[in-house]
Amino acid sequence: MAVFGIFGTKTANVASSTYYGLYALQHRGQASTGIVVNDDGVFHSYKDSGLTNEVFTPRILEDLGLGQMALGNVRYGTSGTRDRVNAEPMLVNHVKGRLAISHDGALVNYAELRRELELEGAIFHTANDVEVFAYMITKARLSEPSTEDAVCKAMERLKGGYSMLIMSPQKLIAARDENGLHPLCYGIRDDGEYVVSSETCALNTVGATFVREVEPGEVVVFSKEGVKSIRTHCGKKPERLCVFEYLYTARPDSVINGCSVHLARKRAGAFLAKAHPVEADVVIGAPDSGIDAAIGYAEESGIPYGLGLIKNKYIGRTFIDPGQSVREDKVKIKLNPVVETVKGKRVVLVDDSIVRGTTMVRVVKLLRDAGATEIHVRSSAPEFLNPCYYGTDIGSKEELVACKYTPADMAKMFGAESVGFLPIEDVVKLGESGTCKGYCKACFDGNYPTEVPADDNDNKYDHKISENK
Ligand code: AMP
After folding, report:
1. Among 81, 187, 201, 338, which is least packed, fewest CB within 10 Å?
2. What domains can be seen in the chain, in order of their start residue?
3. How far is it, in rounded angstroms, from Cα 410 to Cα 408?
4. pLDDT for 438-469, tens place per residue?
5. How distant is the alpha carbon of residue 104 from its chain centre?
6. Across 25-143, where does the E strand assignment appear?
7. Ligand 1 pocket test: which of 261, 359, 360 has the largest number of ligand atoms within 8 Å of its C-beta?
8. By alpha-carbon position, which residue is closest to atom 15 of ligand 1?
9. How far apart are CA 185 and CA 202, in angstroms?
């Protein structure tokens, strides 16, 4: 999931800039997308399931009109929440005015807060956490003097990993959870417009210069008075950036906490080469997110890097689609080997991660059919052993291949000569040229930075919501 917002004081084509920003963040979510334009306090919005460039036609963007501010979102639906009804930003009219809200992440106390609100009479229309954010903020606004104070008050109860953007008629407000699990930054354009984004790559796309990250627990308010920082929640918890951002989620040309994602991935590849060396003729990467680590592996090991697999550019990240059968079909149409690179060769195949193992079985077979004599599988992420409660869909323990099999068993299952994972102690070193003070690596070591839902099923309200797409 990703958020993107623009704050300016002059009327401009903010819808178009938001469209390009979301387009740059598309890798973070492909289930649905939406834009809200704020023209002197009047909100115009459009959202739907699908990719940004499918949903927003020139006509729809034109209809959104001009404005001084805009808020956008691309959403990656975790299981059961991919319906259009869950698309963001969410628009709410409340007793003190109007808000648009969009977020990246997930609440661990969603079920608890939702139940509490329902018992007070609230009626929910979606299975999306953002509706709980909206209720908590508008409820707090009844007693707080401003929207930003209401956001701070709501944050006392919001537990989990989230980066959120809230647009009121006059302000754009950015907030990040106390551990700073997901990235959020802002920049400025030459014309003085502020741009807030989940990743720096979208700042570059719209011509904004990076200013800084929103800090863990910080609330940043953009208004006619300038930029205000509220730090009531800062420093309450240790920083815990999701390390999977470096390994998979973010785009390699983004910089998170002062560290290039590309460099972090190359570092992962180098650590992998040290931990799991092998005699081979060529190192190849599983496109796209395995490429940077493959280059790092090749550089460290001295084995040449080769272009071994080509990905159909018009297909999304396979994992995002629901259901095992759909995922398998997509893997089949996604990749094709470059026979000249792998035929008769001992191949090191680097991917960013092995989750259920579905991709690896298929890719190893592709390479074997293309004539690779040996295939050594290397994952630049450690073994996935635990579910994520902060918005990354990595499934339950029953689905995680590393929970059931040793690397040696996996090698047999994939039809490979060997399998090796990044050692867990190396993941904290990936962002070492940056400023991050600590990482969440709970999916690998089970060390969650927050409380976690007692029963995962309690946290899901999917069965209550359905809508024809
Ligand atoms: P699997 O086939 O289940 O082992 O999934 C591994 C593949 O999915 C890798 O090639 C990753 O690039 C990709 N992947 C890993 N984690 C995620 C995620 N949370 N969402 C989408 N794709 C993912």
Report:
1. 338
2. 2-237 (3.60.20.10), 246-445 (3.40.50.2020)
3. 5
4. 999 999 999 999 999 876 544 444 433 333 32
5. 7
6. 32-39, 42-49, 67-75, 90-94, 97-107
7. 359
8. 353
9. 10
In three state form, how does the secondary structure of 409-431 look? HHHHHHCCCEEEECCHHHHCCCC
**Residue in the block written with tokens 């929440």:** 81
Scan for tokens 């359905």, then name that residue.
466
pLDDT band at 317 (very low <50, low <70, confident <90, very high): low
State in Å: Cα 183 to ligand 1 middle. 20
Closest CA to 396 of 79, 182, 130: 79
Residue 313 main-chain phi, psi, to 5 deg: -70, -15
Tokens representing 328? 């398998």
Distance of CA 462 to the CA centre of its chain: 21
CA of 371 to the centre of ligand 1 (A): 25
Distance CA 212, CA 29 (A): 23
Give 249 Cα–ligand 1 centroid separation in angstroms.
Answer: 10
pTM tops 0.85: yes
Task: Locate the ligand 1 atom nearest the alpha carbon of residue 381 and give its number.
Answer: 15
Write out pLDDT tens, residues 353-374.
999 998 999 999 999 999 999 9
What is the Å distance from ligand 1's center to 165 Cα? 27
Which residue has the least CA distance to atom 11 on ligand 1?
353
In the structure, which protein residues have their CB atom closer than 6 angstroms to any atom of ligand 1? 248, 286, 289, 317, 319-320, 351-360, 392-394
CA distance 139 to 381: 41
Whether the upstream peptide bond of residue 423 has omega within 30° of 0, thus cis, is: no
How high is the pLDDT of residue 459? 45
Report the separation in Å between the CA atom of 319 and the middle of ligand 1, taken as the mean of its atom positions: 5
- In contact, 246 and 265? CB cutoff 8 Å: yes
Nearest by Cα to 186 from 163, 162, 153: 163
